[in-house]
Amino acid sequence: MGTMTLGPLQVTRLSLGTMLMGGRTPRDEAHRMLDRYHEAGGNFLDTADVYGDGESERTLAPWLAAHRDEVVVATKVGMPVSDPPGEGLAPDRVRAACDASLRRMGIDVIDLYQVHAPDPGTPLEDTLEALDGLVRAGKVRALGASNFPAWLLAWAVGLQERNGWAPFVSLQPQYSLVERSIEVEILPFCRAAGIGVIPWGPLGAGFLTGKYSRDTEPPAGSRMAGAGDDLEEARHRRAIERNFRAVDEAEAIAREKGATIAQVALAWLLGVEGVVAPIVGPRTFTQLEDLLGATDVTLTEAEHTRLAAHTPPPELYPYRMLSQQLGLGELAQLNRSRS
Ligand SMILES: NC(=O)c1ccc[n+]([C@@H]2O[C@H](COP(=O)([O-])OP(=O)(O)OC[C@H]3O[C@@H](n4cnc5c(N)ncnc54)[C@H](OP(=O)(O)O)[C@@H]3O)[C@@H](O)[C@H]2O)c1
């Protein structure tokens, strides 16, 4: 399925998200999905301590016992969990959470350790220094951030450089055809800084599979049916006309190519410069089987543009003024090294 570089790591272009494993996806099925993903050439697993309060990491443990050296393991810290109790990114917590994740997964090093979200209660320097300590201690190979705004990520990168601390090599933001806000600032910054983007929610939590329609209630048991209004995949945010148009377009292209809507939506993401590996989150073995076909789908530039036409990113100042009034639509690519 092809690979790309993420700092010191070589990862496949589809990552397997394990958020539902040990929860809505029973253990046996989760292990069959891990086998199938591995057999298809995938090597990049994403989990977090908060998924099922450790159950996702515990579900991975027996599978990793047999396959540890064949996969890149990414996990996260920062959301509320019971072991170690609490939340946030205070240095002691980060160190204790790392040890807890290692213990739950039965491994001795985490390949990619990600901060799950910013922690306004902890000075950023303190967190970054603690993360650097984990790399120096050999407990972590590389660092990543998730759900960071561009300015905070840029600030973190500056601090890491100035202090000689281990850098963030990846950002895990929400990104899909139905959520393109990162194109305004986050994605251009990541391209400029050489930070690989590994999108979560690449199918809009299932919206980009065609399972939802304008006229009917979300299917019982589906992600949207169970989503509270505050969640990103809430119905009021997802089930809107422009998003349905994007699905219609993906369906038309899928029909032309003999592919599925989900495969086309993932192929679109794979064609965005700066995207290293969408993190797919299938709930079932059958869903995974469908998604694995995405890396075989290639879109032409015209198809890529057709798909993107319905859901442009929000127009925000100063970008709106720079492009509409001053004709600076394509800001020059920043280059940190200037060489
Ligand atoms: N960093 C973060 O804050 C963050 C947040 C969320 C997720 N993540 C990571 O990203 C991964 C993926 O996120 P996500 O679950 O939101 O991604 P997603 O791939 O956009 O959505 C997954 C959902 O799509 C549906 N689906 C998937 N394949 C399908 C298919 N072939 N046919 C029909 N429906 C299909 C399933 O919905 P149903 O359950 O309705 O069938 C599944 O639960 C997670 O596992 C986790 O590792 C990170």
TrEMBL record:
InterPro entries: AKR (IPR020471), AKR_Detox_Biosynth (IPR050523), NAD(P)_OxRdtase_dom_sf (IPR036812), NADP_OxRdtase_dom (IPR023210). Keywords: Oxidoreductase. Pfam families: Aldo_ket_red. It comes from the Bacteria. Residues 13-310 form the NADP-dependent oxidoreductase domain. Gene3D superfamilies: NADP-dependent oxidoreductase domain. This is Aldo/keto reductase.
